[in-house]
User: What shape does this take?
Amino acid sequence: MQKNNSFAVDEILPPGKLFVLGIQHVLVMYAGAVVVPLIIGRALKLPPHQVAFLISADLFCCGLVSILQSLGLTSWVGIKLPVMMGVSFAAVGPMLSLITNNPQTETIQLLFGSIIGAGLVGLFLAPLVGRLLRFFPPVVTGSIILVIGITLMRIGIQWIFGNPFGPTAPKLVHPDHAKWLQTMMEGNGGANVPPNLTLQATEKNPLYASTQNILIASSVLVVILLILRFAKGFFSNLSVLCGILFGGLLTALLGVMHFENVEKADWFSFVLPFHFGAPIFSFVPILTLSLVMLVIMIESLGMFLALGEITGAKVDSSQIVKGLRADAVGTLLGGIFNTFPYTSFSQNVGLVGVTGISSRFVCVMGGAILLVLGLLPKLSALVEAIPTAVLGGSGLIMFGMVVATGVKILSSVDFQKNRHNAFVVALSVGFGMIPLVAPDYKQWMPSSLYPLIESGIVLTSVVAVLMNIFFGGAKPVSRAEIKKAAAMAGEH
Assistant: This one.
């Protein structure tokens, strides 16, 4: 990787330049930063103003944790390199599984309790991760990231066409059939109706795969592709954000995007901890997200080594541990401030390489900008108002690039001399696909295990590590190999 340092890591640039460069980092990560709260908020069926609050909380914590990582907190937390922090896509699948299997009113409190628990576990994991590297060579991390992307692609596709269940399901119960069942239930106290009787959905739903939604998503995708093809440098990095802005403008002109909640939202509001109530702690969900935390830390370690190579800064084991602690503290703060697990964003690591500007204070400024944006509810309400079809068009690119990252990492794996690597990939990806292809496979298993076995990401992680050990692949991994894998992950 080429070293092209315009400024030293610890150099403080003039305020105007810091602000402009900080905005650049914010723009590069913004689209990815707001997607996860949109996914989780809508999965929780929260009202629009609460989804907007999740976005505000996420932006606030993105800023807080970015400052923590880049500026450092005492000599214990923060790698003190130009790092922007955002919510990890790796946690989305397990969090959705937790939501699906806990449909009670306190689900969100259980979710945040599990995130807090995973953050605390992460503090203990940080010093151990270096020793666990041998269990996470590129064949393992590539397989995991590949399945993360495949899992997320399902969400992007559903944003375009509609969800399998609910008001946008492909088929609905015929109104006459529903009316008949209602009449039968009311007659004779429902004595003639078998318990738990449900009617089959047979009528095509006009809201599913509507032509309008397909055209909107396609338009967004075309705009993103045109920018990627013809724009250069920094503007090419903003392709997804520009596509979403275009989609928002298009749907506003079509009358599909509504602004009632934007008008009702306050101009300024603090993000307070435990907004949804006291967290609830449960062992299995905490264990599940702790496994995700381990995967996040392995990925972050590679990013830190790659960033040290880009900036020319010396990155030793003690600094890596400080950076990993910041990941854990960020996740802990995420649970407290109503948001999700955090990691270093690879696209911003790539931006440092492209610009050659190594000053960590640029990312401190970027964090400060994000923190302020998180205190502006109107902005979050505007993001929440964007129709899902717009997000679906951009999601094909965003989530597809996660798949491509996994493929790129796997391309560095030696499949010729070590044919066992192919079996590691085959089995880990195969197990990861089980919850996607056969979501009801777990119906005879204890419900307490669902958070562990319903996430393809968790299954892939466990199977990839075990198969790699079984085939004798758990050997020490060199720093060069880690840098190479991280560089591939950061190039997208």
User: Anything to note?
Assistant: The longest strand covers residues 85-87. The chain has one domain: 15-166+208-490. Residues 15-166+208-490 form one domain.
